[in-house]
Amino acid sequence: MTGKITISGSKNSALPILAASILSEASLRIANVPHLNDVTTMIELLGTIGLDVTVEENMTLDVSTRGILNLRAPYEFVKTMRASFLVLGPLLALHGHAEVSLPGGCAIGPRPVDQHLKGLAPWVLTFK
Fold this sequence. Notes:
By secondary structure, this protein is of the alpha+beta class. The protein has helices at residues 11-20, 37-49, 75-78, 88-95, 114-119; strands spanning 28-30, 51-56, 60-65. The protein has one domain (11-103): Enolpyruvate transferase domain (UDP-n-acetylglucosamine1-carboxyvinyl-transferase, Chain, Alpha-beta prism). Strands 1-3-2 form a three-stranded antiparallel β-sheet. Strand 2 (51-56) and strand 3 (60-65) form a beta hairpin. Helix 1 (11-20) packs parallel to helix 2 (37-49). The protein starts with 10 loop residues before the first helix and ends in a 9-residue tail after the last helix.
């Protein structure tokens, strides 16, 4: 059997990739990103932190870092999207400091972030 299929982009892949783009000194091109509210929110959040994200045809994104300007993820984004918490690790890795509220945005209800925090264990963290 032979053939070709097109696989649509996945929110659960795109959001961590976008958050990880904080770590890149080079410009990035990310293709096949789904056109979803959470993706738009993450793009806006990255813009407040200091990344330039240009959306091109077919949801291909060009991402470049102009310099991290803000180590605080605005609550207006964090409260609407659980994946906003993913920016915490890259910001800590680069700057040793970040402020990210516990995320909202889950229709299921509150979900723990303990596994994320365990991954950050090498840093001395202060939670407020």
